[in-house]
Amino acid sequence: MSHKILILPGDGIGPEIVAEATRLLHALKDRFALAVELEEAAIGGAGYDAAGEPLPQATLDLAREADGVLLGAVGGPRYDQLPWEKRPERGLLAIRSQLELFANLRPAILYPQLASASALKPDIVGGLDLMILRELTGGAYFGQPRGIRTREDGVREGFNTLIYSEPEIERIARSGFEIAMKRGRRLCSVDKANVLEVSQLWREVVERVARDYPDVALSHMYVDNAAMQLVRAPKQFDVIVTENMFGDILSDAAAMLTGSIGMLPSASLDAQGKGLYEPIHGSAPDIAGQGMANPLATLLSVAMMLRYSLGEAAQADRVEAAVGRVLDQGQRTPDIWSEGCAKVGTREMGEAVVAALAD
120-150: per-residue pLDDT in tens? Predict the structure, then answer.
């Protein structure tokens, strides 16, 4: 059967990096018999431009029919004056919610060729390979009530609701334990249980789920300490599971350990393994159209899609190996460039990865 893949270029550098991912998928189809059908649609600012909504209904319908969705990035300053519900970021939150993509997988892997590009010393980050599992459809980003109001004394105040139910916590915890079973069998649950009642419930539920996974060593860490430990001794972690806002922050911090945020893919999965795949960086409007964006996170997101949603592990291995070969060749986009390496643009890097694909 042919896999249906929906391509959502989005805004900013999104179309540039997604173009290289599309090139890669066509190469896998033509050279290695990957059975895929590609379709493209608009989201974010592009969705607003096309249909007046950051997530057009036509895009959502196609996403529901697809086996996997590949997203570039959303957002840009030209949309900053739109009403909140029309802004590009609302399209991203909406598609995650509508597709019930509750589990966000963000690996932080340091390629040995990029050890010198990390913000930390090579002996601290060398061999880094951790997975951050972020709950994606709950917490303060979706909680109700929310808004900005004026008190009786005339003072304006903003408010958001941080809320998690037991079933929401249990399903992300169970996903974390399942992933840990396939890795180093160590799971660190990050919360703020010394301050927040929602974190106290989080910890209680995680400990209950842990009884079903006796082979996984469970630990707990407050989020402020976890942030410190990520830059002090990141290799102590195998799998981190945490709530939406904490995961958003910690995964971006982990990105800098790998040399560049342009190197990190992500997967957002539903209960059946269907997912939306995207690089964790933003739309970078300051460099959009200049052909200098790093497409490797997007290409590695394709690899994650092949592995987690399409059941094409061998093709995923092929893509990841090709990225390693290109780095061995010394080819670098500006964000990961160092003396002695060849500085290349977005298209050149994408072409190099396609050329490096091997049986």
Answer: 888 888 889 999 999 998 999 999 999 999 9
